[in-house]
Amino acid sequence: MDSTPSPSSSSAFDLVSSALGRYLPRGGVTAAPGRADAQAQEQAQGDRTTRPRPPDDPEAGPQDQILGAVNLDRELRVTRCNLEAPVFEGLDALPGDPFVDLLPPGDVPTVTRRLRQVLETGEAHVARIQRLRRGDGSELVVSMSILPAAVPQEGLTVSVIAMARRLHLYAAETAIGTSLDIGETAQSLAQSLLAWGEVAAVDLDFAVWTGEGVTDQPHGRIRLRRAALVPDRAWPEGYVTPGDDLPGDASRLLAQAVRRDDAPQAIVIPDREAVERVLGSPRVMRALVPGDRSAGVACIPLVLDGPPPVVLGVAEIWRRADRPFRDGELFDLQELVARTAHHVDLARQHQREHTQVLALQRRLLPRTGGDTIEIASVYHPATPDSAGVGGDWVNSFPLPDGRTALVVGDVVGHGLGAAATMGQLSMEARALLSAGLAPSEVLEHLDATVTLLDDAESGLAAGYSALGSTCCIALYDPVTHHVALSSAGHLPPVLVSPDGRAGPLEVRPHPGLGAEFALREPFDVHTFGAPPGSLLALYTDGLVEDPAVPIDEGIGRLADAVSTVHPWDALQQAARHVVSTLAPAPQRDDVTLLLARMIGYRKGDTSTWRLPARDDAPARARAQVSALLRQWRTRDDTRDTVLLLVSELVTNAVRFATGPITVRLIRAGHGLLCEVGDTGNGRPRVSRGDLLDDGGRGLNVVHGLTTRWGVRWTDTGKVVWAEVAR
After folding, report:
1. How far apart are CA 157 and CA 124, in angstroms?
2. Which of 136, 424, 500, 532 shows a CA-CA span of 20 to 30 A to 646?
3. ω before 586 within 30° of 0 (cis)?
4. Which neighbouring-strand residues pair with 672?
5. What's the Cα-to-Cα distance from 27 to each of 1, 84, 134, 522, rounded to whole Å?
6. What is the rounded distance in angstroms from the CA atom of residue 48 to the CA atom of residue 437?
7. 577, 583 in Cβ contact below 8 A?
8. Rounded CA gap, 472 and 523, in Å?
């Protein structure tokens, strides 16, 4: 068939073929199938097999052309093809053959989907970088465009442009720079290098792989880990695959090979005999040589420019000894690796940031609960890289006075800025709660901090703003079995009562932290009962938000899921189950969940007395406490210490406060917790005092008798607490 189309033809195949006609010998286009054409096809196939193989470089000579076309029917079978240019030698596309036979197996699903999409929509898919398989198993990199056939014809026309090396270098560098994941970056580099060989591998310095700082180490100490390997196939036993460390002697050999004369240089080992002489050990041969067919190798160092240059790793390209590397190919390989080495270093830096962000995030997660509460938490970042790690955080910690703080927050944004703000707010909240401030007062301080961080003159004005961040704080009292909760724009917690009823708490809406002055509202304290066996769920919006359903429905689904958690279920396992059930797929935001199962103190472990603020109050308190300690069978020395402690605290309350005095004793773990509450608002302070000064010495006694003591504020006054070891 003549390659020049008839004037009436307007198919995409004929238009592409017309551009090739003056370059190709007549008869270069194979006609549609027909029994009468079988002999001509066999002759054409015979010519194809006897013609000498052209050089791999499409730019090797001016006579080599790089354009081709294949026509497909609706079943994606070849009807006509024009792949007679020498560069396409070995691409067997005969009429009736499935087009996917030209594709590497791993690309078949994606390309098939693209072909059918163009058939259905009629919209062309252009300039796809694709590999085609030759008959001998090697591959050719092409730019492939999928075009719909012109009416009234049906089917598709696939035009291919063999990638010239310069074009391939540009496309490869563009593809490698699209990800900041170090594994994906190395894999993209290996896939690009495969155009020059049959097997390509990228081995990185272990410090690069983990994101650590790289230095100009002595080459004998380098430790390499395989980061990428293509193609994807079954490899022989002992061969190093991605994620494996290279044997120490193999790492040293590669390092020495690319660091000749103290300068990184590319090397070529032309055949298997030379490879065996260089590697020596059979163990190293099994680890590095991909098989009998691939014997020659080019080792190209990934070098980070600088004074002095630092080797990040080694790229290896293996191919048969009968296809030696030409000087031009080595130049192209070195240029590609040099162009993309900085992408590897960027991925290393990103990996380091990712590790730091996750370390900070994980450190803020609750570790364990205690005797009075059981804690479980789950945190899933939106993406595996640090750009997707957001500012969601949960924390739970025991307060010195026996209560437990539960905190959940959602800082605006993602990345290192959000993580830094998250860490600052979390630590500030913990310090303020430990100092005895109420949840509402802590949120007032966090609100001021967020505003300060956003200030252009004194804050962190480096393109990041935490305005609109949210936070919810809950304080659980194991004696009264009550929870005091305050929220700054956060979604309401879900409470499951011991009888299984579940629902969100009615928390007054709030604009969040750092709101404009005109929008600021006071932070309320919501108090509710949480008897033993209750389950409280605090979470961030990533767990319940779904664009397809209202947010209230998402919270309702969370309540239903949490209500199925039984008292005998392992809480951590239950938390994971709730997240796996509710978390949207794909995940758009960080998912965070904190479950707290209330246990509290047993009735026999606590006792409370109310006394009038009179001079006889210390004596009455000593009598009540002494009887209780005998009932608890406390040691004599501990009983004497507690009696002296209670006497001093009650005396101070009578002297400096008004109203009734509350005395509470708690048997907690390995200690005794003494609390004395009054209606005063002054903060007790330890004073050194002069010899004639009789004020402030009681607190010195308290300080010397206890393991720790402090003050917390209440709506009616304050509570001074102190802990004594049993």
Report:
1. 10
2. 532
3. yes
4. 667, 724
5. 5, 9, 22, 86
6. 85
7. no
8. 11
Please say whether the dihedral angle defined by the alpha carbons of residues 689, 643, 707 and 442, taken in this order, is positive or negative. Answer: negative
The C-alpha atoms of residue 544 and residue 540 are separated, in whole angstroms, by 8
* Residue 280 neighbours by CB under 8 Å, 6+ apart: none
Strand boundaries in 85-238, DSSP class E: 125-133, 139-148, 156-162, 199-205, 224-230
Q: Is residue 726 over pLDDT 60?
A: yes
User: What percent of the chain is modeled with pLDDT above 70?
Assistant: 75
DSSP, residue by residue, 317-361: EEE-TTSPPPHHHHHHHHHHHHHHHHHHHHHHHHHHHHHHHHHHH
- Comparing 273-277, 379-383, 460-464, 558-562, the range with the smallest average pLDDT is 460-464
pTM of the model: 0.56
Q: Is 560 helix (H, G, I), strand (E, B) or coil?
A: helix
Looking at residue 634, what DSSP letter applies?
A: -
> Which residue shows structure tokens 């590497």?
104
- What residues have CB less than 8 Å from 418, skipping those under 6 apart? 389, 390, 391, 411, 412, 464, 466
Torsion of CA 426, 427, 428, 431, to 10 degrees: 130
- End-to-end distance of the chain based on CA atoms, in angstroms? 102
Does residue 144 contact residue 159 with C-beta atoms inside 8 Å? yes
Backbone φ and ψ for 682, nearest 5 degrees, come out as -85, 145
pLDDT the model gives residue 574: 93
What whole-number distance in Å separates Cα of residue 537 and Cα of residue 539? 7
Q: What is the per-residue pLDDT for 680?
A: 82
Secondary structure in 3-state letters for 159-204: EEEECCHHHHHHHHHHHHCCCCCHHHHHHHHHHHHHHHCCEEEEEE
Amino acid at 501: R
Q: Between 385 and 331, whose confidence is greater?
A: 331
Pick the closest to residue 709 from 695, 725, 693 (CA basis).
725
∠ CA 594-598-603, nearest 5°, is 165
Task: Return the bridge partners of 529, or none.
Answer: 482
Type of residue found at 216:
D
Using DSSP's 3-state secondary structure scheme, residue 542 falls into: helix
Nearest to 212 by CA among 306, 339, 345: 345
Q: Please enumerate, as own/partner, the contacts of 610-614 that have beta carbons within 8 Å and a separation of 24 or more.
A: 610/660, 610/661, 610/662, 610/663, 611/650, 611/660, 611/661, 611/662, 611/663, 612/660, 612/661, 613/653, 613/654, 613/657, 613/658, 613/659, 613/660, 613/661, 613/678, 614/654
Residue range 507-535, pLDDT digits in tens: 888 888 887 765 678 899 999 999 999 99
* Pairwise CA distance, residues 246 & 235, whole Å: 15
Q: Which residues contact 604 (CB under 8 A, 6 or more apart)?
A: none
